[in-house]
Design a protein that fits this description.
single chain, 190 residues, mainly beta, Porin, 7% helix, 64% strand
């Protein structure tokens, strides 16, 4: 937890920003053409390749608005996500463990609708990339380790409310490493 806080502070100071906590002071069109958004989030992960149960997911994404499209803009970017799942059980007195670790790298695109509401960015999009699934099973005496590589399609809808010109709170839903995620977004304008 301490390392996460240090990394977050590094990004804030590296961007040369002053943190304002005044609500409603964000930009009118946060994801306008030419702006970039770096986001960090976490939530309940999606089990891939046989994983089951609840597992946490950690997400990092970057979206760069490329051009205006109607009342909004289109962004291109990338995302990386990691999720963890495990199952522990006992059968006839013997303990067993199954573990899944999923790592995905995705190219993504989104449409950001311009509501002309100060600080509000809403978007929807899709992506495609590669998923690496690492599996470990301790059943029946000998451990089994397996890694699978597969195609990873994603789709998502989300929104961010920027408290100032740089920092915002984000929520995203969909088939995107996590069923739902919350986190922080940092806006970089040209």
């Amino acid at each position: 937890m301490k390392n996460s806080a240090i990394i977050l502070l590094f990004f804030i100071f590296a961007a040369g920003i002053s943190v304002e906590t005044v609500s409603g002071q964000g930009p009118v069109n946060p994801a306008g053409a030419g702006n970039g958004i770096l986001g960090f989030g976490f939530g309940p992960g999606i089990p891939y390749f046989g994983g089951s149960g609840f597992g946490p997911a950690i997400l990092v994404h970057y979206d760069q608005s490329i051009w205006r499209a109607g009342p909004g803009s289109v962004s291109l970017g990338g995302q990386m996500g990691v999720s963890f799942f495990s199952t522990d059980f006992t059968h006839r007195g013997d303990p067993y463990t199954n573990r899944w670790t999923n790592v995905g790298i995705v190219f993504r695109s989104a449409y950001h609708y311009g509501w002309k509401v100060r600080g509000l960015d809403t978007y929807a999009g899709f992506g495609a990339g590669t998923l690496f699934n690492m599996y470990r099973n301790t059943e029946y005496g000998a451990p089994i380790n397996d890694t699978q590589v597969g195609f990873l399609p994603t789709c998502f809808i989300g929104g961010t409310y920027f408290f100032n010109n740089v920092i915002g709170m984000n929520a995203e839903f969909g088939y995107n490493f996590a069923i739902a995620s919350i986190g922080l977004d940092f806006r970089f304008s040209r």
